[in-house]
Specification:
Blueprint: H1 2-6, H2 17-25, H3 27-30, H4 38-41, H5 56-64, E1 70-73, E2 76-79, H6 85-88
Length: about 100
Amino acid sequence: MLLALRETVILGVDTSVSFLIEVLSHPDFIEGKTHTGFLEEHGFMGKPGKERSLPDEVLIAAALFKPRKSVTLGGIEGKTPSTTPWTEIGSWQVGG
C-alpha cells in the first residue's frame, strides 16, 4: 500500500495521500498496534493539511477564461456542439 501511495500522482487537487503515507509509516501502525483511538493518540487528528494558494495571475486567468467557439480535431476545424448529453436529458433528480 505504501508503494502504491508513494507512486501516486494526482495534479490539481488536494488529496490525503501524504497523510495516509504518514499514518501507514508510523512504527505502531507497522507493528499492528492500532485501535479506534490510534489517530488521536498519535497526534493525527486535526492536523492541518497543506495550504496551497494559487498565484493571482492564475486566478485572474481562470476568471477571464472564455471557452473557444471552434475546435480543431485532426486538422479539421469545426464549431463546438451547441448541445451536450447533459443539456439534452433535461431536468432530472436521483431517486425520483
